Automatic annotation (TrEMBL), chain A:
<dbReference type="InterPro" id="IPR052375">
    <property type="entry name" value="Complex_I_20kDa-like"/>
</dbReference>
<keyword id="KW-0479">Metal-binding</keyword>
<comment type="similarity">
    <text>Belongs to the complex I 20 kDa subunit family.</text>
</comment>
<keyword id="KW-0560">Oxidoreductase</keyword>
<keyword id="KW-0411">Iron-sulfur</keyword>
<dbReference type="Pfam" id="PF01058">
    <property type="entry name" value="Oxidored_q6"/>
</dbReference>
<dbReference type="GO" id="GO:0046872">
    <property type="term" value="F:metal ion binding"/>
</dbReference>
<keyword id="KW-0408">Iron</keyword>
<dbReference type="GO" id="GO:0051539">
    <property type="term" value="F:4 iron, 4 sulfur cluster binding"/>
</dbReference>
<protein>
    <submittedName>
        <fullName>NADH-quinone oxidoreductase subunit NuoB</fullName>
        <ecNumber>1.6.5.11</ecNumber>
    </submittedName>
</protein>
<dbReference type="GO" id="GO:0016491">
    <property type="term" value="F:oxidoreductase activity"/>
</dbReference>
<dbReference type="InterPro" id="IPR006137">
    <property type="entry name" value="NADH_UbQ_OxRdtase-like_20kDa"/>
</dbReference>
<keyword id="KW-0004">4Fe-4S</keyword>
<feature type="domain" description="NADH:ubiquinone oxidoreductase-like 20kDa subunit">
    <location>
        <begin position="18"/>
        <end position="128"/>
    </location>
</feature>
Length: 147, 292, 644
């Protein structure tokens, strides 16, 4: 039995956005939606997190930050692009400094579009991410046994 | 005789190592559910802390250096030993000293990483130890004054619970218990909640299995501290254990209530209030017992 | 017993001969051979003396000598001459006056009052003297060996053309050892007094070694305070001659236990002498000032000699203090207040040697307080505090001295990454620090016994003081330990140039420390308990043997963690620290700042200047302790009958 899915700790980073999705992510983690029912805890530390929630697009200035957070997370880990800007750049896609969606910086596992993305959808995305976590955890275990 | 006591302590330690994590884990789960209810939420399942730790042990091993894990391991070992000493009826002072040793290794683990956040956390943790240590020592002294022995087992020889004569000391211990349990308003070094201004304080760099060990250590510590609380309520009769259990439940609930109702304070307030409480509650009670 | 007497005399005389020879050796090569050989011989002789007399009760030697009496008087005159000469040269009137009073007082005592008093048993030893002999002989000579390498570096760091006073330095170190042996083995209080004054003047010369203005000032502060203490000793001798009628220290103690009123003044005066020598507040400034001297001097003053003479005297007086209220309250309160206030002030210091100095004064305060309590349990605790403090503190001083020469600073903030830069030294230093304040090491076991003895004696004030002082102790040691524990990348190892003599001494101290902690129950049974039994007729020991063995077990675990566990290869991926943004270089903790520039994260320890600053705390102790001592002397003067 994999425990990764039972305790998805998340870290949240807001890239270049209007902050709408940012607020929705925090709303999702607040008592109203009670993410802790599923073991979701918002950590401020990539080293403790399993799921990386990114809102907003990636630009020249923040791409390094996004990459570093991702690298500092421990395997197994999952990235969720929250909102249309994080998925593709959204309305900012042709700004001079915007590179695009989060997948331009790091591999994304779940896309949750929306402007702004709604908490229900975010919970859905996290649940989808959790399934991925289990897959990756199982793969890690298999690799360990094989090695 | 020597071998006997050493053997009892070692067996006690082994049993504690098996039982305390289970009890501590359930306590932590209960804590989270009750906290959620106080905030108008449903909260996680009771076994959520267990899932968390199992997950942490499934994570990849990654660390800033090789020594952090060793220090955390030593901290866990000594926390378990302290519990073993206490619950096998051993010397209360030795138990206090060994749990302090455990705290020291935890602090060293944080310092060894040289993460600025972990260092701030470690410095605050050191301050916390300094804040609660006088009251803890005075607790042991007061216990000795009541029972005539530092051995925990001596509590069962009493004709009435210790809290009747060292009630002030009990209140003092209750005050610093909030620091020891890392509950708000005294969770300066390491908070169990997400809202922390120094990332994650002491455990910033601890991840995966190392963090799992830290969690288990906290479970064991919590069980031990609850044991200290229970110690105030036992006396000769077997019924006293039930009284102690009720007291522990009430105190634990009180701590959760405090945790959910107070905002974190600055270090100055924590330090000065903890020492003042130790001086007044501990000093007065001990003086009364010594001179009356 | 013949052999023991021979060894005893040898230990007092041999270092003097070595000192005389060293005074004329100007070259490094021969000096190294002589010092190493002499240190080995002294250590071997003291160990032999201890081993031959394990568990011994008091052994008195019938030894009386007019010659020794005259030599002692001659030495006193010499000391006075040296001090007056320096006083004239550096225009210090107070020192001249005190030295003059002292020599006149000594001569009057010797030729007017003391003429008829005879001490048939001039020399003695008991288990406490043996323990002291072990500390002086092994740790003291270890420090002498260490000094060889250290002083070579020290001289190299001096400005071009600076005078090389190393012959005098090493001679003084050995004279110091001889004087200490004389103090712990003399039953004749006049001889003891001579040893006492020799240590005073030796430390005066050692502190002033560099002859800089600061060194001279601090040396004079030391000599003034300790001459004042010496006057206390002299006053006690007068009281002994006039009221008690004996100069035999052991007889004096026995009379004191039976009739405390007669000796109250003498005991108060002797305790005052002990308090000045042990640098208790208000006299703490001389020991802090002594830090200007080369580090081996500090190590010698702090760990095995000088201050230990002060507490040795107090511990010896403990049985009398248990029955004489006035000096007892003075010693107890002065010690306890010094302990707690100096522990507080240590928090506010970043200079490693100053932290060590405050910690020394604080621990001496604890020993003093134990002596003041005077119960067998308290003496047990005091004895172990003396032993473990000597070992751990010398280890720490030697570590700091070596670190200073290799990283160019004695500031704790500069010891960042010492674990990388000097891996072996850092481990020794960490061991020394842990041994000073944390269970299961001997120092804390002794503190534990102290607490229990205070509880037994119902000393509420002392209990509370100990609780708060110990908490402060945790703070200042833990934050230093944390500084050392940091690891990042692999900076250059600067340890390779540490001299072999330094490693030898460090390793000796570390081994002694670990063995001492592990075999604490055996030391208690073989050395400490016999002394207590001999003095009190009971065995005062508050910590049960099984708990002591449990602590030994923990010691082994901690040492294994420190020396074997912390060196393993990392398992899994090695990652950088989290810097909340884009890191530039994790080893230096630099990151990309808001303007895309590079910023470096720095951290400093907490010093809590506003709470524990010297300016706030020191005056409290100075005023309070001075008042206590004045009051005690007034009471003692009234209580003691004057019999002519």
């Amino acid at each position: 039995m994999a425990f990764a899915s039972k305790s998805p700790w998340v870290i949240h980073y807001d890239g270049s956005s209007c902050n709408g999705c940012d607020i929705e992510v925090l709303a999702t983690l607040c008592p109203g939606f009670d993410g802790e029912r599923f073991g979701v805890i918002n950590t401020g530390n990539p080293k403790h997190a399993d799921i990386f929630l990114v809102t907003g697009s990636v630009n020249e200035q923040n791409i390094g930050v996004v990459r570093e957070i991702y690298e500092q997370m421990l395997e197994p880990k999952v990235v969720v692009a929250c909102g249309i800007c994080a998925c593709s750049g959204g309305v900012f896609h042709d700004c001079y400094n915007v590179i695009g969606g989060v997948d331009k910086a790091i591999p994304v596992d779940v896309y949750a579009p929306g402007c702004a993305v709604r908490p229900e959808q975010l919970i859905d995305a996290i649940v989808a991410g959790v399934a991925k976590l289990d897959e990756k955890s199982a793969a890690m275990k298999a690799a360990k046994k094989g090695a | 005789m020597i071998e006997m006591t050493l053997l009892t302590t070692l067996i006690g330690t082994l049993l504690f190592a098996l039982v305390a994590p289970v009890v501590g884990c359930l306590l932590a789960g209960l804590d989270r559910i009750i906290s959620a209810r106080m905030q108008g939420r449903v909260g996680p399942p009771l076994l959520q802390p267990y899932y968390d730790v199992r997950k942490l042990f499934e994570k990849e091993r990654a660390s800033v250096n090789a020594v952090e894990r060793v220090y955390v391991g030593a901290a866990l070992l000594f926390a378990v030993l302290a519990g073993g000493i206490f619950f096998s009826g051993g010397n209360l002072l030795l138990c206090v000293f060994v749990i302090t040793l455990s705290s020291l290794f935890f602090i060293m683990a944080a310092y060894s990483t040289r993460s600025p956040y972990a260092e701030v956390g470690a410095a605050r943790e050191t301050l916390q130890v300094m804040s609660y240590e006088p009251m803890v020592l005075l607790m042991a002294v007061a216990f000795f004054q009541v029972t005539g022995s530092f051995d925990v087992a001596a509590a069962f020889g009493l004709t009435h619970p210790a809290v009747c004569t060292i009630g002030l000391v009990f209140l003092g211990v209750l005050f610093i218990l909030t620091i020891k349990l890392r509950k708000s308003p005294f969770d300066l070094a390491l908070s169990h909640h997400a809202h922390q201004e120094i990332v994650r304080g002491v455990t910033t760099e601890m991840s995966g299995p190392t963090l799992g060990m830290v969690e288990i250590m906290h479970w064991c510590e919590n069980v031990l501290f609850m044991g200290w609380i229970g110690l105030f309520f036992v006396w000769g009769g077997p019924l006293s254990l039930i009284a102690a259990l009720i007291a522990v439940v009430v105190v634990y609930f009180l701590e959760i209530w405090i945790d959910n109702n107070f905002a974190r304070v600055k270090w100055q307030f924590m330090f000065k209030s903890a020492w003042l409480v130790a001086l007044v509650a501990g000093g007065v009670n001990i003086a009364v017992l010594a001179f009356l | 017993m013949e052999l023991s007497l021979g060894l005893l005399g040898f230990l007092i005389v041999f270092p003097l001969i070595v000192a005389a020879v060293l005074l004329f050796v100007r070259h490094e090569g021969p000096r190294r051979v002589i010092v190493c050989a002499a240190a080995a011989v002294i250590a071997a002789a003291s160990v032999a003396l201890v081993v031959m007399n394990l568990g011994a009760a008091t052994v008195l030697f019938s030894f009386e000598s007019e010659v020794v009496d005259f030599v002692c008087t001659g030495i006193s005159a010499l000391i006075a001459a040296v001090i007056i000469a320096f006083g004239v040269r550096y225009k210090n009137v107070l020192a001249i006056a005190l030295a003059a009073v002292q020599i006149v007082g000594t001569l009057v005592l010797e030729f007017v009052f003391a003429h008829e008093i005879e001490v048939p048993y001039g020399l003695y030893f008991d288990s406490l003297s043996l323990l002291m002999a072990f500390i002086i002989g092994v740790i003291g000579s270890g420090i002498c060996v260490y000094a060889l390498g250290y002083m070579e570096d020290f001289q190299a760091h001096q400005p071009e053309g600076a005078a090389d006073r190393r012959p005098l330095f090493f001679a003084l170190m050995f004279v110091f050892l001889a004087a200490m042996f004389a103090i712990v083995f003399s039953n004749n209080m006049e001889w003891m007094f001579t040893g006492w004054e020799v240590t005073t003047v030796c430390s005066f010369l050692l502190i002033g070694y560099t002859r800089t203005e600061e060194a001279i000032n601090n040396a004079f502060r030391q000599i003034v305070m300790n001459l004042a203490g010496g006057l206390g000793f002299l006053a006690a001798l007068y009281s002994c001659a006039i009221t008690v009628g004996t100069f035999s220290f052991l007889d004096f103690l026995v009379i004191g236990v039976n009739e405390p009123a007669i000796v109250t003044f003498a005991v108060t005066a002797l305790a005052f002498a002990g308090i000045t020598k042990a640098a208790q507040m208000p006299f703490q400034t001389w020991l802090l000032g002594a830090m200007v001297a080369p580090t081996p001097t500090s190590a010698l003053l702090h760990s095995s000699t000088m201050v230990k003479a002060g507490v040795f005297m107090l511990v010896k007086l403990a049985p009398v203090l248990a029955v004489a209220p006035a000096p007892s309250i003075m010693v107890m309160l002065v010690g306890a207040i010094t302990f707690v206030l100096c522990s507080f002030m240590a928090i506010s210091q970043s200079n490693a040697k100053r932290v060590l100095a405050y910690s020394t004064i604080a621990n001496l305060g604890l020993i003093t307080a134990c002596a003041g309590v005077g119960t067998p349990e308290a003496v047990w605790a005091a004895t172990f505090l003396i032993l473990f403090h000597a070992i751990a503190k010398s280890l720490l001083f030697l570590c700091v001295g070596t670190a200073e020469h290799h990283i160019g600073s004695r500031d704790i903030e500069d010891m960042d990454l010492l674990f990388d830069r000097m891996p072996r030294l850092a481990r020794f230093m960490m061991l020394g620090i842990m041994a000073m304040f944390i269970a299961p090491f001997g120092m804390l076991m002794a503190k534990w016994a102290t607490l229990v003895s205070f509880v037994d004696a119902q000393q509420v004030a002392l209990i509370v003081i100990l609780a708060f002082g110990s908490a402060a102790t945790f703070m200042f040691w833990a934050k230093w330990l944390g500084k050392l524990a940091g690891i990042a990348g692999s900076p250059e190892n600067v340890e390779v140039t540490v001299k072999p003599t330094e490693w030898t001494a460090l390793l000796l101290m570390a081994c002694l420390l670990v063995l001492g902690c592990v075999f604490l129950p055996l030391i208690s049974a073989a050395v400490v308990e016999p002394y207590i039994f001999g003095v009190y007729g009971t065995v005062g020991q508050d910590i049960s043997a099984d708990n002591l063995w449990l602590a030994s077990l923990c010691t082994i675990i901690v040492v294994v963690v420190l020396f074997a566990g912390v060196g393993a290869k990392p398992k899994g991926r090695t990652v950088d620290v989290y810097l909340a943004g884009v890191s530039r270089d994790a080893d230096t903790r630099s990151f990309q700042n808001a303007l895309s520039g590079t910023a470096e994260a720095t951290t400093r320890n907490w010093y809590m200047e506003s709470v524990f600053g010297e300016a706030r705390i020191a005056p409290v102790g100075v005023v309070f302790n001075s008042l206590i001592m004045v009051a005690a002397f007034v009471v003692a003067f009234v209580v003691t009958p004057l019999v002519f």
